[in-house]
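Render this sequence as a predicted structure.
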Amino acid sequence: MMNKFGMAIFCFILTPLAFAISPQKGSPSLESFEYRQSSNYPEFSIIGSWTYKALNSTCEDAYIFQPDGTMRGTSGDQVVDSTYTISAKHTRYAFYELKHQIVSTNDQKDCEGEQSEVGHQGLHYIRYDLTGEHMIMCEDETALLYNCFGPLTRNQ
């Protein structure tokens, strides 16, 4: 069984259930992530620190993407280190392709009560809102946004 933490970024092992986009205080609505056909869709970088906290939850997920292709994710008591690659430009549907692999874990449980496994590999599609301050992670590159997790918010 895979967990939401795994889906969210490359260290996650997500549940087989569809991912939900849960609004957070001050975060954009789902409409903010809808594709708008334009040749001038802005491009953003994943490098930096991102957080996600579901409504009515005290548990928070945090992800730090480094320029060297490494990422650290924390969720509950779990700490996971991964390697990642992300496409330099978005696709024609404004998604970035994110590939990742878990290289170490502290073997603790995440916010969902799941444990991630070393060696787990993932492929997700990232879409930013028009400001680049929020992103969602999706299982596929469809405009329907049904199998997505987030939004994650960029920390300043």
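Summary. The longest strand covers residues 96-105. The CA atoms of residues 63 and 73 lie 4 Å apart.
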